[in-house]
Amino acid sequence: MFLEYPYSLSEVKMRVQQIDQVQISDDDLQCAYKTIFSCIDLTTLEATDNAESIKVLCEKALNYINTGDGSTVAAVCIYMPFIKQAKSLLAGSGLQVATVACSFPSGQLPLPLKLAEVGWAADEGADEIDMVISRGKMIENDYDSILNEVRSVKKACGNAHLKVILETGELQSVELIRKASELALLGGADFLKTSTGKVSPAATPEAALIMLDSIREYYVKTGKKVGFKPAGGIAEPEVALTYYKLVKNILGDEWLNKELFRIGASRLADKVKNLIS
Domains in the chain and their CATH numbers? Predict the structure, then answer.
């Protein structure tokens, strides 16, 4: 289905630079930051997470509704033990509950156990499930296993949306990032996601551009819109704006909403909210 990817790393970097240098008017900048804020997945994925910290996170998301223009983020993203708590706290708010699965962040678990995780998360009521692929199998060029894994996880998600984390910082090369994007798309991903946020580098504009090109090509050939989520290390509004520009340039304005664009972050929301209040 996919053509051979035509861009080298240096060409990818040049395209990112050209897109990021595009100037935005003050009015358009306000609109951009409002969109960015509404697309944030407010995230805590720490070993020390507990009922109280999840309550604080959910209350933070809810409190945004009562300030400024009444807008809030798109979702909270938490570990699986807290799904039901978050669903209860956020009931009626319109906020989604996302969780991570498939032996996050390593991906090192046999497929039947990964599917058990996903099924459990779906049964708990997760609206969105962020799976992480096996980078070891990508490096071994075991592409059939990756494709089968994504397809199987998608089925296990039931009604929950599936975000597929590529962990691009460990794939590194243009070729592997492109191939992982293709496999995730063919496997039925609802979103492509850059990173777990647990390795360095996390999200990069270069990896994002490769993924966005893949989403664009998939859409042109199938008519199916797949979302995009950069995550990891996005703590400043200016960095988030770069990803906004990339999505706008490559996929167009119709992708600039919470149904098709998310940003995974823990420290970004307050900073962006202050810019639009």
Answer: 26-276 (3.20.20.70)
